[in-house]
Specification:
The protein has 472 residues and is mainly β. The protein is 3% helix and 49% strand. A hairpin with a 2-residue loop joins strand 24 and strand 25. Keywords: Membrane, Transmembrane, Transmembrane helix.
C-alpha cells in the first residue's frame, strides 16, 4: 500500500528530546513542545493528512539519529514501513495509534479534541488547531503625505502608515476590508482599515508579493516562492503549503492560482490541496488562467476551452458582435471575461471590432464599435477586481449594464482600478474615470492609489504604505 501513496508532501518528524520535536511539511517547519512530542507531532501530521483526504508518508528521526519510515493516516493510525528486522531494533514509534476526533464550538473557537491511545495506554488530550505564533508587530503610526500629490477625494493625512519590504507591493482584499504587505523583517502582515494587525507570519526571503485568490472554493491570501506556494485562510490559522515542481511559476491572472511548468510543458491546478495536471490541452492552444481546478485555454482563432481533471473538455464558441465578420484573434482574458478582435463585415480589409465576451458562455458582453486595423495594438485590458467596470484601451466598459455599456475615450491608456475609479493617461496626463464615464484630470505628480481599504486610499511611496483619510 505504501508505494501507492504519493511522496508529496515531504514530511519529516525530528525528535530532539523528551519534550521537543520539529515537524517539517513541504519544507515548512512546525516546532513542537509537548510532554509527549511523538504524540503531538503525529497529531499535526494527521491533520495535514485529513486536509488532503489521504494518508501521507513521513520519516521519523530519533534524537540518536535512528530513522523510521512511516505512513500516517487522517484518523491518526500510524504504520511503520520498510523496517528491516535484521537490525534487531524495533521502532518505538507506535505501529497503530487510535485517534478519535470531535469538533466542538466553544465561544466561537474551534477546538480539536483528540484522543490518543498508544499501545492501549494514554489519556485524552485537548489541543487547539495550530495557530500562528505571536510575533513582534510592525511600527504603525499616522503621518502626512506630500501635499498636492494625493488622489482626488483624499486628504494628505494618513491615518496610518507602515514600512514595506523594498520593491514589494500590497494586496487589497476584493471587499476592501483588509490590506496585506511584506514587512521589512521577512513577514507577511494583514491589517484592517484602521491599521490594526489582524495576523502576521514569517515568510522566506524570496517570497513574492501577496495576492488574494481562491483555492478549493475559499478566499485565501497566497504568497509564492520559487519552490513553495503558501496560503492562509486568515483568522490566525497557520499557512498551508504546496511544493512546486522545479522551474514552475505561479500565475494569478484568474480567480485561482495556475502553476505553469517550465519548458512549455503544461500547467497544474490546485484541487483538494494538491497539484493536479491541467488535462487535455488542445493542439496550438494557449493556457490563459485558472478558476478553481478548471483551466481556461484558447486557440488563436478560437474557440475557448475549459478543462478539468476527471471531466470532459468543454468547448465555448464566441458569439460575434453586431456587424462582425470573422474572428481575428482571442487577445487576452481575465476572471469571467475574454477579449477578442473581429473583422468588420462591411470593411474587413481596414476595420475591426473589439469585443468583450463571457468565458462561461461565449456571449458578447460589450462591443467597442469599429476601429481601424492596428489601432488596438497598444490597448491593455484593465478590469475591476469585482467585475463591475473596466477598460480595454480607450474603450470604457460598464459591466453592470447590458445595453449601451461602452464609451470611447480617445487616447486613453488604462493603468489601474482603485475603489470606484479607473486610472489612466491621455497624452501622458493622469486622469481618473468613474463607472459612469465622468473624467477627472489629476494634478501633475499625483500618486495613483493601489486600492481602497475601508474609506482610506492605499498609496505606496518610497517603500512606505500610506492609508489616506477621505477629504473633508
Amino acid at each position: 500500500m505504501a508505494e501507492k501513496i504519493p511522496s508529496w508532501p515531504k514530511v519529516t518528524i525530528r525528535l530532539y528530546d523528551d519534550h521537543n520535536a520539529e515537524v517539517k511539511i513541504a519544507g515548512r517547519s512546525h516546532p513542537v513542545n509537548h510532554h509527549d512530542p511523538r504524540q503531538a507531532a503525529i497529531q499535526l501530521v494527521a491533520e495535514q493528512a485529513a486536509q488532503l483526504g489521504r494518508a501521507v508518508k513521513a520519516t521519523a528521526v530519533e534524537a540518536d539519529g535512528a530513522s523510521w519510515p512511516l505512513v500516517i493516516h487522517p484518523d491518526g493510525q500510524v504504520d511503520a514501513i520498510d523496517t528491516d528486522p535484521r537490525k534487531g531494533k524495533k521502532p518505538i514509534w507506535p505501529i497503530v495509534l487510535a485517534m478519535a476526533v470531535a469538533v466542538v464550538l466553544i465561544a466561537g473557537t474551534t477546538l480539536y479534541i483528540t484522543v490518543f491511545s498508544k499501545l492501549g495506554e494514554g489519556k485524552p488530550q485537548v489541543t487547539e488547531s495550530p495557530k500562528l505564533p505571536e510575533l513582534p508587530g510592525p511600527n504603525v503610526h499616522p503621518d502626512e503625505f506630500a501635499p498636492k500629490t494625493q488622489p482626488t477625494g483624499y486628504s494628505t493625512h494618513a491615518g496610518w502608515t507602515v514600512d514595506l519590504a523594498e520593491d514589494s507591493t500590497p494586496a487589497i482584499k476584493p471587499d476592501g476590508t483588509e490590506v496585506a504587505i511584506l514587512t521589512t523583517d521577512e513577514k507577511v502582515a494583514v491589517f484592517d482599515a484602521n491599521g490594526k494587525v489582524l495576523w502576521q507570519d514569517k515568510v522566506p526571503k524570496d517570497a513574492e508579493n501577496p495576492v488574494y485568490t481562491t483555492i478549493d472554493g475559499k478566499q485565501v491570501l497566497a504568497i509564492a516562492t520559487p519552490d513553495t506556494l503558501y496560503y492562509w485562510a486568515g483568522g490566525g490559522a497557520e499557512a498551508k503549503t504546496i511544493e512546486l515542481p522545479d522551474s514552475a511559476k505561479v500565475q494569478f491572472f484568474g480567480k485561482s492560482p495556475l502553476v505553469l511548468l517550465g519548458d512549455e510543458s503544461g500547467a497544474m491546478v490546485i484541487s483538494g490541496g494538491e497539484l493536479k495536471a491541467a488535462p487535455d490541452q488542445p493542439r496550438s492552444s494557449t493556457i490563459l488562467l485558472a478558476e478553481g481546478d478548471r483551466t481556461l485555454m484558447a486557440q488563436y482563432l478560437g474557440p475557448l476551452y475549459w478543462t478539468q481533471p476527471g471531466k470532459q473538455i468543454l468547448t465555448v464558441n464566441l458569439q460575434p458582435p453586431g456587424g462582425a465578420g470573422k474572428l481575428i484573434q482571442v487577445v487576452s482574458a481575465s476572471p469571467d471575461y475574454v477579449q477578442a478582435l473581429w473583422t468588420n463585415a462591411k470593411n474587413p480589409a481596414e476595420e475591426a471590432i473589439p469585443a468583450v465576451h463571457s468565458t462561461a458562455s461565449g456571449k458578447m458582453v460589450a462591443s467597442c464599435g469599429t476601429v481601424r486595423n492596428g489601432d488596438t495594438d497598444g490597448w491593455d485590458w484593465v478590469p475591476d477586481p469585482n467585475r463591475k467596470f473596466g477598460a480595454w484601451g480607450e474603450c470604457l466598459v460598464n459591466l453592470t449594464l447590458t445595453k449601451n455599456n461602452t464609451r470611447r475615450l480617445p487616447g486613453f491608456q488604462p493603468l489601474s482600478v482603485s475603489g470606484s475609479m479607473l486610472y489612466g493617461t491621455i497624452s501622458s496626463k493622469l486622469y481618473a474615470v468613474s463607472p459612469n464615464w465622468n473624467t477627472y484630470p489629476m494634478n501633475e505628480g499625483t500618486t495613483r492609489p493601489w486600492g481602497v481599504v475601508g474609506k482610506r486610499a492605499v498609496l505606496v511611496y518610497n517603500s512606505v504604505l500610506y492609508a489616506l483619510d477621505p477629504a473633508k
